[in-house]
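Please produce the structure of this protein holding fe (ii) ion.
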Amino acid sequence: MKAPALRSILIVDDDPAIQKVLSIGLGRLGYHIHVAQNGKEALNYLESGDYDPDCILLDIRMPVMTGREALPKIREIKPITPVIMLTAFNDLATGLDAMKNGAFDYLVKPSRLEHISETIEKALKYRDVVAEKAEQDRKNEAYRLSLEKKMQSKAIELNDTYMKLKAANMQTVRALAETIEAKDQYTQGHCERVRKLAVKIATALKLPAEKIEPLEIAALLHDIGKIGIPERILNKQGALDPDEVDIIKMHPIIGAQILSTVEFFLPAINGVRHHHERWDGNGYPDGVAGEDIDQLARIITLADTFDAMAMSRPYRKALPLDGVLREIQEESGKQFDPEVVQVFFSEKLYSDYVDAGSRQAQ
Ligand SMILES: [Fe+2]
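Below is the modeled complex.
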């Protein structure tokens, strides 16, 4: 808090006698005094920014700009600086009116110096309280902003770490998927294409965002269980005997078991376990039907089957696209979830697959 002796008072009055009396009297009491001839000059002072009085004595009747006109503008420039109006004896109503408009108090001219000084001191105390409060508010706001900024950068950092972790996890999943493809010579690039198509189907079905990651994992790893199937069965030329078929049919269960060992994979487990289930209940390994089949699996089943039929494999050429599409349509409600088939056709999700010679997905 400033010492009273350093307080600065701006006297705004056009009457040289008043200027003199107040300047000398208040100067003796230890105030720094500045004088302005009218409201306009006072505003110029305040707007210059070089001068910041602690209190303003403002006459009401002045040429150029009256105290009444100047008051709201002063309040705007210096909202916490108290303004004491100087009113003529016969103009008390204007003084009271000025108080309604934000003046701190009013003095009737002529006033005794002692009374003027008391009023100024009250105004200065009031100003100190308001200034302290404003300063505290400013500090609180600055603290709040810096805290908010810190939290924001922390959140960005966390999100960044999460995204990196997620990318690293997905890389691991891709590496695993490639391991399966290396083992099964018929499935080069198949898992990645199934993932892409499955995500398109899920997007068309408006699946919630949190289901997309498990879907991608399940799509990439749907055949991970083939790791547990002997290569001589997987790569056998010609028909498999019934025992071999039973062994092949184990791969969704083996896959689900592998995924169950890693927490990150848990939401994807049934997407893998159910990918050979059929909507009509005639699939394997559990023979579940309809919506009892995991929704991720219902999407993957169509993507997997479509890709297997539409793409060339070493032992056979791809089927013509129109034939594949007819087959998919016919299997709606039998092998496939009708809703999945419906968006597959309505959104033309097969359009990345070109129907030419030994075709490749684009
Ligand atoms: Fe499979």
